[in-house]
């Protein structure tokens, strides 16, 4: 029996190899010169995918540039067809016009379900809708904006600036990883706003809390699940609790346990304190709304994940771009000095349109979220004529969109904040920010799922950029173009190593 089984397995392997060899020689359906990846019977585009797995961003972008419709399709072994688009009309169709037909879908929510559970960024239907309504209400409250701004001001003035001052005053200048500092800063801010808890990550004399490292590990491994050519691989590893999936389970255990402990402590303090009207953090607000502990845990984990990595990534790339474009940095400084004679306040930040244009331009080239996927609930046809079958994975691609000549013009590769302004009508008038379709620039998503923290994110980034640049020069120790790494949230490979110099006034 054992011998018979062995022969059967060998026969199946040889049969598969024979079919594969036959496919590669005689049944090739598409070539690499076409707009879609090379595809073979049975195995689809898995060979092309695996070959380009280390450079998916550039590979997708190159193929989309060749496509007349800025859309490509391909199949992977044992997975549904994937459609990737950089066409703004398609993006509008997916995110707004036919929104109900393009939920995240179970294949996507499975990837992040272990970490994010049923949180707002990993849910569909009524579960998503109820969380969205609650969060939208809270984010429009003036009290939350004021609470956030006060936390932001304290974190910048009492922690970030002193850390940078210490590095600047160090004999010969200390090299610091500016990306790491911004991530620590952002984690402090988002934990204070979301949980009412202070991890104090900018205290460099002690190790960061276990929760921080667990977040990093969990996010990285969860993201890599999506790049497996065959999803069964990570699912089997999870089933047997081995390799990266074992590390993921341990990291998620730490995240869930840490956040649950904070929630229990918060519930206890709310009972002791009685009135929750003076509790401004999101956790207190969600608990006051009567949500159970698991739902609240999933919600705040989602907000921490989004709020920490997105703003720090965008600012990291902006500071690097400014180091390569001194003329743009000077214009930001002029704006900051004009707006903040008495210090950067909320209204001053609203008026910093040039700084906002610089941030948008940085995110066009280096979006914090490089791609996002939905799954078709039913058959459909995209505006460019692409047929969509029920169950297809449909991905819109901000990274590629920022590099499309059809979308941004021949100068797409240049860092040009002025592209975000209307032409000045009268001499001496202040330029007005151009209204750019969110479907052309879907960095904050668009439609019903548009990011509810968008304005708070700009507020935070403007404040940090203005406060830092007005005091310091940020000088990279290496002028080579950094590598862009697209995990759940993109980051700069190896960090941004810089010298901090006090700015001469």
From TrEMBL:
Protein localization: Membrane
CDD domains attached to this UniProt entry: CYP86A
UniProt keyword list: Heme, Iron, Membrane, Metal-binding, Monooxygenase, Oxidoreductase, Transmembrane, Transmembrane helix
Binding site for heme: 451
CC cofactor: heme
Top-level taxonomic group: Eukaryota
Membrane topology term: Single-pass membrane protein
Keyword Transmembrane: yes
Single GO MF descriptor: oxidoreductase activity, acting on paired donors, with incorporation or reduction of molecular oxygen
InterPro entries: Cyt_P450, Cyt_P450_E_grp-I, Cyt_P450_sf
UniProt-listed Pfam families: p450
Primary site of residence: membrane
Gene Ontology cellular-component terms listed: membrane
Family: Belongs to the cytochrome P450 family.
Protein name, entry field: Uncharacterized protein
Organism encoding this protein: Microthlaspi erraticum
